[in-house]
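Hi L.,

You mentioned the student needs an example of a multi-chain input paired with its predicted structure. This one should do, with 536 residues in total across all chains.
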Amino acid sequence: MFTRDRGQKKAIEEAEKLTDVEIIASSVDKNFSYIPEIPDVPKDSAYLHITTNNTIEGTAIFDVPQTKEIPLVADMSSNILSSVYKVSDFGLIYAGAQKNIGPAGLTIVIVRDDLIGQVEKLPAMLDYAVQAKNDSLYNTPPTFAIYVAKLVLEWIKTQGGVAAVEKQNRAKAGLLYEYLDRSTVFSSPVERFCRSLTNIPFQTGDAALDRLFLEEAEGKGFVNLKGHRLVGGMRASLYNAFPIEGVEALMAFMDEFALKYKGGEVHV
Amino acid sequence: MFTRDRGQKKAIEEAEKLTDVEIIASSVDKNFSYIPEIPDVPKDSAYLHITTNNTIEGTAIFDVPQTKEIPLVADMSSNILSSVYKVSDFGLIYAGAQKNIGPAGLTIVIVRDDLIGQVEKLPAMLDYAVQAKNDSLYNTPPTFAIYVAKLVLEWIKTQGGVAAVEKQNRAKAGLLYEYLDRSTVFSSPVERFCRSLTNIPFQTGDAALDRLFLEEAEGKGFVNLKGHRLVGGMRASLYNAFPIEGVEALMAFMDEFALKYKGGEVHV
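Structure written out for the whole complex:
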């Protein structure tokens, strides 16, 4: 069971190697620019899989579906520790560390005990039963990445915990969304009720002007603003470590750009 | 097809999930203290698996078996880049980076093109066909570990390449083996013709004296000298980065210890 967006393509492919997959909700009709409503999950399902934040599309799920007996499985790679979720809502949470936790090469899994060991003959590396039995030390673990993760977790505590970090993220994202919503030059392609706090795509509506923006932005030191090739346009990624000053600087540059090429913003 | 020693136990378990495994050579009769002779490999074998260096036992294979049509697969985790092997002797070489290459969390695989893609429905993470097709970038790779590996590879070049590093390793290991062979207090449990250059187990033959040695050694700053619990005694690991001065210091301490508790070495 999946809600489909591009971020879930790989999860679907892997699951299909082991079992039947049914896509019960999709936003393919509008280029994945919103989170579809999730219907009742068929009762014989092993789990419902969601991705809480979609990096490419800039959509996010804040109110997770209440699936009752069906375990909810979430790929939280791109917004773990950036907003508050209730861990007990999930059967399994997995997340690559590389966005908000530490260096690439570490994956964190939080799994309910009763869900461990349901697949036979998995390679040991991917078998949570083996990992749990060996305290995640079956093979040599990625020690440096784990050490950095520890430092980041301590940093999050000094910020006041995930709730405080979410507040900062809402402030950063809110500033940019507000700008986009009143801009006459730039806009957000994502429906309001499911906008990511982390990945914010935006566009001018003119591909040539988008390219010019990216070029001039890079000249001013704003890097990695290019949207994913499947979506186009621009994308600002505001992970936990990104400061609000960065958002303010970006908006000032957007103002400058709008003035230069479109005669300025007409704020409404 | 495997030659069995403890280091290969996991490789056997994983292979058994996919195919039949036959153990064609083993040194279990003498507690894995030597490398058994490898008989002709049955003609219908998919591959012969060896471990070129056994960390726990301190044994190593320097002359690799010539298996002709049967691909030779080697776990080289603990001596890759520490002595010269001819890559063309192997169908597949794999090695965890954490001994001689960089931080834990990176695995290097060298595989012959024609051996890729022979297993159906592998998880993408473990499917060399997927990795090869995506230039090892199917998922976010462990970037920091790769960067450090680059620095280590450059360092090996400045040393004069693997041949020069092997020469250093032979000097370091030779010094310690020579000491052990003429010592009346300490000895090596490993047969001479298959001694590792990297992991050198040694013992006094008296478990209580071994414990005392480890305790006093640690007090002097010699750490990680404890032998694996399956073997007991002591073990000196002389990876590429370990300096010859460290070996000399260890031998001086062994002399001191021998004098204190056994009235000194009787060199023969």
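You could point out the following to them. The first strand of chain B starts at residue 2 and ends at 4. The CA atoms of residues 35 and 173 of chain B lie 18 Å apart.

Best wishes,
N.
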